[in-house]
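Researcher: I'd like a structural prediction for the single chain below. Treat it as a standalone chain; there are no partners to consider.
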Amino acid sequence: MPKKEWFADWFDTPYYHILYQNRGEEEAKEFIKALLFKLNLPLGASLLDLACGKGRHSITLNSYGFKVLGVDLSSKSITHAKLHENSNLSFAIQDMREPIKGRKFDAIFNLFTSFGYFETHRENEKVCKSMSQMLKKGGRLVIDFMNAKRVIDGLVPFEKKILNDIEFNISREYTGTHIIKTISFEDKSETYQYQEKVQAIDRKQFMQLLSPYFEVDFIFGSFDLEDYSLRESERLIIIATRK
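Model: Treating it as a single chain, here is the predicted structure.
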């Protein structure tokens, strides 16, 4: 049997959500508000939240009057997200490398470094092609990714975090292509180890990936949509339009 991809294991465990329980919800809501102001989408537009996790961004997008579908490969995250469904908000299990058949959207949001989870750029190309196939002509794409250069320069090799009485031992390395985070811990006398393995995709590589299908409109470096700086910015946020 083929080896299971890292995200198929890690994202479906309760420990992933314990480790990342302190994410800034208000900051995320302000980020969505800023994006929507910049995009100026028509009321009632159809939006896709691609790799939505438990649906926090989908819920916020829906609160502004948009019809939203959130998709993720994690069945447990989608089960949780479905508790928030309504007539204009739904969730489904979906691999981002494959287009959703019979659906076209006015905008696609891919947020919180939910790109580059794969081994090769060929798979990233599949994601970009899939996104273009799911967007209406002139539809908008938002990708919110880490600023790989800044992450690599400031990489913390090892740290400990204690959350819910669990001591998470976290190590990080850069392989030349991927940033790998190894998470080890014990709980109830059981030992666990998981990895996060994300490609260190820079601005130039994103431009190459997107160019067959999209025109890039804006590049920002923070959730406040400040100008992007290679060495200083925390994020690499791209807004593009489907050709």
